[in-house]
Amino acid sequence: MNTQPQCKTPIPADVQKIIHRAHRMRSEYLNKSIKAGLSHLQGVFGHKNPVAKATA
Description:
Elements: H1 12-45, H2 50-55
């Protein structure tokens, strides 16, 4: 009786699919992160200072 787990070596096509999916997921994550960061910066720097209006 063999207690060692049997692991199949993935075929090159499966490896390429996994790599392609990982690259796509990374790209989507970076895209969302950059958009969120730019949106936050726009919110921070996009508003005029209300104190400056009151003293003008």
